[in-house]
Amino acid sequence: MKDPKRVLGKILGKDTDLTPFEASGEPIELLIETLREVQKMRRLRGWLKEHAGIEVALSSGTFEKLLDLPEINFYETTDRNLDVERHSLKDTRQPGDPVTVANLNTYLRELFRDLSGINQLKTTEHPALLLGSAISGDLVDRVNDYILRLRRLHWRGVGFLFTGIQARGIEKQFEALFPEARKAHPLRNHLKDVQWELGFYRRCLEVNIRWAATGLDLFAVIRNDELHQLVENVGELGSGLWNVVYNGLQLKTTLPLAGIRLEDGMTLFDPESVPLHAA
To answer: Cβ-count burial of 43 within 10 angstroms (0-12 exposed, 13-18 middle, 19+ buried)?
Structure first.
């Protein structure tokens, strides 16, 4: 990098006094690399919010709701005797405490794990969704109801011979919900496939409920066929977070000078409190 001081000035703003950064003795190039990582994370945050409803920059109140998940609430430490002790964040956090970068890392790790599981399930067992373009969480039970009603009309040995009118009425209701899902119509001919697909949507509903506090709308992602991209972006955001923490070990003075504090994850994402400019 030809002139790291000039580049840093562009990122932090022309009115920033760069003297303390130089005096710190810490590598300016690494600070620039880290701040650019933060800028990338902010762009990923915007994508996740727009496409999946997910808020990455968790408020204290939202994070406290996530402590109902044991994977986020509990953490382990090792004492001098190498004995493992289990702790609860519910017991140590105070109301209004900022969400730390370590907290965010735990959150993103668990979210990534759940979303990866959903993506793997779709890839291996449901590569082509019959109802994917129009499905939503509130329709899952309704689809199940149509399936059950049709199955009750299917008589052993004669099928729908004597119940065809009633069956067609149910199918018309189903078609009205999913007019574009032509491969799923008529429902009588695709009962097994739709019921099999319903298991995938139930799993999606479980994940949606589990992460409801974050705003996740997994069904919107599925309707737009963006599940794979969602998983990639959450993973990339988690990697960026780890890079900031790792680089921060060498930037203990200059990273806080730039406004990024690992004890307050909001500083990574709030452009008002920590404005960063293109350079």
So the answer is: exposed
pTM to 2 decimals? 0.93
Q: Are 274 and 2 in contact (CB under 8 A)?
A: no
Are 234 and 115 contacting, i.e. CB atoms less than 8 angstroms apart?
Answer: yes
The answer to whether residues 189 and 121 touch, using CB atoms and an 8 Å cutoff, is no
The 10s digit of each residue's pLDDT in 47-98 is: 999 999 999 999 999 999 999 999 999 988 787 777 788 899 999 999 899 9
Provide the CB-side half-sphere exposure for 87 (13 A, CA): 12
Report d(CA 149, CA 130) in Å as an integer. Answer: 20
C-alpha 82/C-alpha 78 separation (Å) is 5
| 147 SS3 class | helix
